Amino acid sequence: MSGAGERDGSSASDEEWERFLRESVTGAAEAPVEPSARAREVERRPPESSGPPEGRRTYSPARPRRRTGWYVTGLVAAVALLVVGVFPQQFVGWFGGDGGGQDGAPLAAESESPRNAPGAEPGLRPTVSEPFRGSPAARWADGSAGIAVPPAKATGWMDVHQVDRALRKSRDFLVATGLDPRVLRGARPTKAIALLNPHQKDVQDYLRTALSSKVPAPDTDPLLLFSRFRPEQAQLVGDVVKTRGRLMYQEGKRGAVEVTADVTFVYPVIRTGDGGRDAEVVRTIVRREVVMSWDNPGKVITEPGTMSLVSYALDMTNGGCSVPTGYFVPPFGTADQQPAEQPHRVDPYDRTKAIDTSDGTTDAGDGCATATRS
Fold it and tell me: What CA–CA distance (Å, rounded) separates 15 from 129?
């Protein structure tokens, strides 16, 4: 006969049954526990993984690779910079500049009036192979590159594009008057004349007289606007003329755009026919200040693409100081001569002061000014 306490053919004492009922309510010390979601995540990971699981919106960055190539490149660049710093004159030519031998790196374009004259240079005479040696001009730009043109902005009657065009044509005028090889050899400055307002009577009268007279007067000397050498007397050394200067502009009369040019030209020349490497080189240094007015055609009679001259002034050294001839006259054979007296002395490379317009040249009354250097 079966008793009430039997379970599947087994029997238990009253003490065991009472303990079973008690543990069912309080929980046994070794009873299994339902794993949490966190525990399930851990259990699903591969056995070799360790550490907490990743969040859904995080990532583990890949281990950075060593960039040995960059370190080597940086080391080479540092060595190259060190070499260039120690021997700059050997590398300037690689980048299109003219280091001027031992005279240093090329100067940046002139953007404002300089505060100081260029420093002293080594006392070296120019040669046919190095015509700018021992001169501040050795660091200047070649030709038109030395004439700085400022950014254009709408001014007077012109919009920004018209002002930019006026500035470019103003520089073209300086090139045509001071750098054109034909004009330098005495030819008629046709390109420059084409940029001048044909209705400006006083300027047209000046041109007619200056370019036709064999012995011009001081106020009709063509050198006031045009650089010229007599081909039978002097010739340029090579084809490089050094320049330094800039253009400035403002609104002028009747809404015109008034452009002022202040540029120094350095011409190395030798006697014509003296082409030996030991030939004497003389540097004729010319500074010009030209004020040009690009007039409003609605208010001034003019022609498209032309401008009027407001004023022009000249300062020259080693260009002659006797009666005007219409050409520069370099003083060959006088390099070792010292004047008995010290007349008015000027530094032709000093651009800190305005041109003295009292006589239009560096002449000092009864004599020619003496340049402190050339």
Answer: 125
Average pLDDT over residues 71-84: 51
Question: Phi-psi region for residue 67, left (φ > 0), alpha (ψ -120 to 50) or beta?
Answer: beta
What's the rounded Cα separation, in Å, for the pair 106 and 95?
11
Give residue-wise pLDDT tens across range 206-228: 999 999 988 899 899 999 999 99
> Which residues 6+ apart lie within 8 Å of 362 measured at CB?
315, 316, 317, 344, 346, 348, 356, 368, 369, 371
What is the rounded CA–CA span in Å between residue 121 and residue 40? Answer: 86
List the alpha helices (DSSP H) in the chain. 14-26, 37-44, 68-86, 160-178, 181-184, 190-193, 201-210
146 with 139: CB under 8 angstroms?
A: no
- 373 pLDDT higher than 70: yes
How far apart CA 284 and CA 370 sit, in angstroms, is: 13
Q: With 50 as the cut, is the pLDDT of residue 98 above it? A: no
Cα three-residue angle 241-243-244, rounded to 5 degrees: 170
| Structure tokens given for 355 | 């041109």
Structural contact between residues 149 and 171, judged by C-beta atoms closer than 8 angstroms: yes
- Tell me the β-bridge partners of 244: 264
What is the pLDDT averaged over residues 302-318? 95
Amino acid found at 295: D
- The pLDDT of 281-298, averaged and rounded, is 97
Q: What angle do CA 80, 81, 87 make, to 5 degrees?
A: 90
CA atoms of 363 and 353, how far apart (whole Å): 16
Report the distance separating Cα 262 and Cα 260, nearest Å. Answer: 7
User: What's residue 38's pLDDT?
Assistant: 46
**In the numeric block, which tokens belong to residue 177?**
């008057």
Give the angle 156-157-159 at the CA atoms, nearest 5°.
95
